[in-house]
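User: For my dataset I need records formatted as: sequence, then structure tokens, nothing else. Please produce one.
Assistant:
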Amino acid sequence: MNKVLVLGAGMVTKPMIDYFIEKCGYEVTIATRTVSKAERIINDRTGGKAVEWTPDQHGLLENLVKEADLVVSMLPPTMHIPVAEICLEHKTNMVTTSYINPEMAALDERAKEQGIIILNEIGEDPGIDHMGVKKIIDQVKREGGQVVSINSYGAGLPSFEHNRNPFGYKFSWSPKGVIMAAKTPAAYLKNGKKVDVPAENLFDQHWLVDIEGVGTFETYPNRDSTRYVSYFGLDKNVSLYRGLLRFIGWCNTLKALKNMNLLDDDEEKDFRNTTYREFTSSLIGDDASGDIAYRCEKFLKVEANADIIKRLRWLGLFDDEQIYRERGTNADLLVDLMIRKMSYEPHEKDMIIVHDEVVARFEDGDERRTSTLVVEGIPGGDSAMARAVSLPAAIASRYILEEKIKAKGVHMPVLSEIYVPVLNELENLGLKFEHRKIPM
């Protein structure tokens, strides 16, 4: 019987554990700081075990890895490298849903020498989006075409029927991760030329995207798209854009929050004996007297009755209520308020969207090919985000253990031996792309 070690028991982990235990019959150990979360996921099922573990317990981690046939790290990205080092030492395959950073890429030769695969970017975004794009690219090349441009979009949003707050957003994955992603620079290619988007200008670069049969959304750049040219095997003069989708209004809202320094996560402050109204006053650089909404309007240079002012008020940043946390950063306080008002109720559904558009050039003309995946969460059950992030990783882990994925080294899921079986299994589980071909 195969043994899988899963590190972390966060918001998106449960469908993976269900797949390993119910579908595959594996022995699964979840190692996490808060063991009660892991115990709830396992729910007394045979084959599941929860272990209390913190990243500083190196010896315990090494023992857990030695006992495992494969490790899935669902930890924050900064924690993957120490795990990978232990996996390399013990020749244990490893899977993550996180982006490949330079430190992880540098492990490629060692992983090949040790005869293991370290598979990354095998979640929803990144993950399903890559697989959908690469499937189209390979089809175009087999048909003798040339890829001219790629637009790839991903989103985790409230379903249309449960989009019921002024921000148009609720948290289906790490709230802190959402805020930190808003501080990440981006880049994309336009006719082979790199367009850099500094972090401070991220929300200035947004526009509308209409997805047929789904709706119209805002998009803004998602990290550095240019590095995928080589992974996708594209010509250097291609246009390549990877973006996030949000309901309209999100980008200007985040820009305002950034301008107020609410996304700062560097300076820890003492919030004792401070109200939210006083805290907000400190951000805009004046005393706490007078109409706080009016003073925010002047600071942000927006008109009276602007949407952002209504959102700040709704969130609670104008309240005379005592801040309930004693210490933290501005981002910590913002996340606390958002979690209180922007979390899903048990009966509510989230929605994930993955939409890929590829323009291909053939001898008889250009053609636009699209793949669209829309999945809604299950009320009272698994969220769409949890399924879309953890099931690709679980399926890929299964095929690695069954030796149907034979690649070694550091990879993302752009090889056909990875994306073909994973996409097929996802379709069996209800995560199915709709494909279109449109002559241009």
